[in-house]
Specification:
Elements (H helix, E strand, L loop, with lengths): L1 H14 L5 H11 L6 E2 L1 H10 L6 H11 L7 E2 H8 L5 H14 L6 E2 L1 H4 L9 H4 L5 H10 L11 E2 H13 L4 H12 L2
Antiparallel strand pairs: 1-2, 3-4
Helix pairs in contact: 1-4, 2-5, 3-4, 6-10, 6-11
Length: 188
Amino acid sequence: MAADAVQELRQQCLKRGAAGIKGLGRTFRIMDDDGSKSLNFQEFEKGLENYGVSVGRDRAQRIFAMMDKDGSGTINFDEFLENLRPPMSSARKQTIDQAFQKFDKTGDGVVTIEDLQGVYNGKHHPKYKSGEWTEEQVFRSFLENFDSPYDKDGKVTLEEFVNYYSGVSASVDSDEYFITMMKNAWKL
């Protein structure tokens, strides 16, 4: 069944430390031989083989068709991520949403450097202290953790924030522990 193979691929990615959006982005870029920011079937099939997920051509075609939500004949990064990131409980999603709302000081649905000012103190960062970076560079570096690997724009959307925390979520078994961790990290 195609869903089993997707689960197998997800597990292979997680074993390689690809739990977060950056790791999955790295996996995707490795599979994307022509640099088109999308995978055709040949790239996908070769990528499965390279990841040690041998499913056979027929099964690979079924998985590919399942992942290709828009029927374009290619899998873009969003489709890839949507299929590979581990599912989260509604309680975890709700906590992530609460953290994002706190993070998004202006309430416009996008976190920028302006949202960080007054919330995140960059002056304690070692590179700021050493004079290597300005406070703005510290803020940019912080935002990059959440930013999509294919759209480094210095702005973090709710989707990018959820993608980041879906990777964190994958490594935490208990909802209670994940929620406590988020509440402590974001002072919710």
